[in-house]
Amino acid sequence: MDRGAYAERIAEVLSGEHGAKVGYPIGLCAVEVIRVVPVGAGLVRITFGGADLADFHSYVPDEHVRLVFPSEDGVLRLPRKDGLSLEWGNPRPMSREYTVRRFSAEDRELDIDFAIHPGGLASDWALAATPGTPMHIAGPPGGVVVPKTYDKYLLAGDITALPAIARWLEWLPREASGWAFIEVGGPGEQIAIDSPPGIDVCWVHRGDAEPGTGDAFEKAVRTVQAPEGERVYVWLAGEAGVLRPLRRWVRTELGVGPKDCLIAGYWKRGIADYDRDE
């Protein structure tokens, strides 16, 4: 479908006052690994390529796709194209959701950054992937389009949210201002980010604490004080339990309403393929 068909709706939201989800046709791409590159000590970047990416849609930072893996019985089950959507069937194919880190329509290349953790299905696959390794990628089903006209932006999350935060900071206008908080294990997991000068980037070190535990991240985010009268957009993502107390804080103390924020539980301790909440 013509990419220009979505330009009008995206432009409408970008020129408006609040963010909104804009849907795209949900495709299924057969791709293969082109490159594998470590990004800091905590991420591995896989670059995918293939002719199917000619019909891939990507426009804004908050976009996600699903990588489809063989099921536990070794059978690769794929969703079926159904008009502009996909029918996943039963039993549902094994898949994991990831952020679109970069897409080049010209080169037909798609980057996805994998947070490395022991025993993770996608993490183990990424560590073993080499050029030529095949993969099927479904989506994205759409993206959250956010105007670039807010006075301040607050972006925060753990290492699973780092790829999206990095893309956000590259996408925002150079005159944007605000705050970015990223929780990582330590200095080795920090990466270079092309951030607007007016965004204060703070790396929160978790140290020996297990991912998804402790309150260092929450305390750091709570230091934000929005200037009175300024419009703030808030984007938070990471472990669902860690985000729970921040949801109320965003609403009551920061004074940001539901049209001006997105808070997404990307994962939950002890649960595989957690369905993120927004």
Summarize the structure in words:
The chain has 278 residues and is an alpha+beta fold. The protein folds into two domains: 5-143, Translation factors (Elongation Factor Tu (Ef-tu), domain 3, Beta Barrel); 148-267, Rossmann fold. The chain is built from five helices and 16 strands. It has helices at 7-14, 121-128, 162-171, 216-221, 240-253; strands spanning 20-23, 28-39, 43-49, 62-69, 80-82, 85-87, 94-99, 102-104, 109-115, 134-138, 142-145, 152-157, 177-184, 198-205, 232-239, 261-267. Strands 1, 2, 3, 4, 7, 8, 9, 10 and 11 form a nine-stranded antiparallel beta sheet that branches. α5 (240-253) links the parallel β15 (232-239) and β16 (261-267). The protein is globular, with a radius of gyration of 18 Å. The chain starts with 6 loop residues before the first helix and ends in an 11-residue tail after the last strand. InterPro entries: FAD-bd_FR_type, FNR_nucleotide-bd, Riboflavin_synthase-like_b-brl, SIP_FAD-bd, SIP_fam, SIP_rossman_dom. Pfam families: FAD_binding_9, SIP. This is Siderophore-interacting protein.
Q: Give the integer mean of the pLDDT values.
A: 92
Count the helices. How many?
Answer: 5
* Low-confidence regions: none
Estimate what percentage of residues fall within beta strands. Answer: 35-45%
Under the CATH scheme, which architecture of the largest domain would be assigned? Beta Barrel
Oligomer classification: single chain
Shape descriptor: globular
Instruction: Tell me the Rg in angstroms.
Output: 18 Å
- Give the count of structural domains: 2
DSSP strand tally: 16
- Give the CATH level 1 class of the largest domain: Mainly Beta
**Which structural class should the secondary elements be placed in?**
alpha+beta
Helical content class: 10-25%
Could you describe the largest sheet, including whether it forms a barrel? Answer: 9 strands, antiparallel
CATH superfamily of the largest domain: Translation factors
The arrangement of helices and strands along the chain is HEEEEEEEEEHEEEHEEHEHE
Distance N to C terminus: 28 Å
| CATH fold-level topology of the largest domain | Elongation Factor Tu (Ef-tu), domain 3
Domain FAD-binding FR-type: 26-147
GO molecular function, one term: oxidoreductase activity
InterPro entries: FAD-bd_FR_type, FNR_nucleotide-bd, Riboflavin_synthase-like_b-brl, SIP_FAD-bd, SIP_fam, SIP_rossman_dom
Protein name: Siderophore-interacting protein
